[in-house]
Here is the input.
Amino acid sequence: MAVLKDIKDRFYNGVHVCYDIVLNDGELPMNETRHEFSGDYTFVIFSLVKQLKKSPKEIGDTLGQWMLSNEPLVIGFEVIQGFLNLTFSNEFWNRIFFEINDNQNYGYFPTNGKKVLVEFSSPNTNKPLHLGHVRNILLGWSCSKILEANGYNIIRTQVINDRGIAVCKSMLAWKKFGNGATPKLTSTKGDHFVGDYYVLFEKAFMEEYSVFQHSKEGIAVYESHRKDTQDSVAFFKEYKNKYFNEYSQLGAEAKQMLLKWEANDPETIALWKKMNQWVYDGFSTTYEKLGVHFDSLYYESDTYLLGKKAVEEGLSKNVFYKEDDGSVWVNLEDVGMDRKIVLRSDGTSVYVTQDIGTAQQRYEDFGIDKMVYTVADEQDYHFKVLFEILKRLGAPYADGLFHLSYGMIDLPTGKMKSREGTVVDADDLIDEVVQEARDMSAERGEIASLPENEKELILHKIGMGALKFFIIKVQPKKRMIFDPKESVDMQGQTGPYIQNAYVRIQSIKRKASENLMVGFDGYKEINEQEKSLIKQLVNFPDVVAEAGTLYDPSSVANYAYALSKEFHRFYHDVRILNAETDAAKSFRIQLSTKVGEVLKSSFDLLGIEMPDRM
Here is the structure.
């Protein structure tokens, strides 16, 4: 901000005049003074102590007195150890607010000409989106919005995992048990419909496996391993995958279907396309409810063949090496990782090979400067390997790779399991939080008289605000528990609490006279509550910048909470519409209005809409 920059420049000039020292920009930080001390902003002067061989008190007194004499906006100072706390006049705060209020794009930065591709969601087509996907989607979307606010050109994308044995399980179950059913015939959302068959396959497989365990063949298998374990339950739990691959009739049929898919069998491909389209239609509905969209899509059925060209390139650059069996590896032991295969001896790719090829394809498609992968922390090591390989291959975007890693999300009842059908589907979760908002609204009764369609739109905004804020406010790397009822609490650190501050501001604006919405320049007696709100507003651009640098939307969420909390206190303690003077009234209306704008901007960066009433 220009006013703060002028103060910094004046202070740096004072250091030069008093001590003949030329400071570089940012060398002596200027921060908001801590609440327990008097003053508004603080210069940290510790670094001058050693250089000047003087006490912090002596340096602070000298510079404080110089600022008091040479900067009209400074009206007092205090030195606490190595901190110089400056107190500013009302004119300073008036100028600060004028500058903030006149900026229609406050908190947003000019375009920097750089492109960032943000990948998020990337679901499988054998099941619907669930609570885990919701955290992924909300983090990826809000991160993309924050990077956009920082001046980047954003490409939002996902890799749809539309192939593999899991997809074939759903296809096989529908073929065996579906009897021609469709989502339309059964009035079932497409992704839920296909997901039900994935669960049905698992159920049929477990029934088959149970029979095997009690068969002569199964008992013989267990007896042959008795020396390793006495616990048959534990043994068969561990043996499950081997049974699927070597004994299971259903397993054999699913693998045969995968082979037919890879051989481009027309009947299998037709079934695959039909069932995938059912899923895509379902995904689109959920994405619309969540308020997200994508600029590009990648499909694993296309990308799984990518990367082989990169292997040849890596071999020619001695980044990779070939074993006697023909497999290709990379040795990352020199950077604390291990040896990693990038091509099997039969010439097939592994996941990291596909990701190398996909990254190269994205660069060819968009010429990006950075790539952000929103993927759970279970894949931390995978991305360390991928980024190191791309660096060694000399990828021009290698320094701009970032893994937006996040912890798992659970419910109060515990973990979720897709194959057992115990996940919380995203659609069910959305319905639940909207219902919680409906119940809360019924108790308050404030929108009961509105038309039904308008009321439902408000309830959707409140419910989605509750869901999104509750998830985004947690630092991404932390594992978390989502409680739908707690998320809509009007008194906690929740989305509805912040939305309520915005709604209060809209109510103030509706009640205010138009002629009092301007001309507040005559107001000079800015009080402490007004000053506190202005200080919060000053922080917004820095919060946006830091969130973009750290790829951490939680800092924006927590800022919005702090600002709304400050406004609720202001609303309670300070007369706004019945202020002492017209100038005070006009100023407080404008201040409230700007707080509302910044709250709305903050929530927009998180993908959350603001209701006008609630």
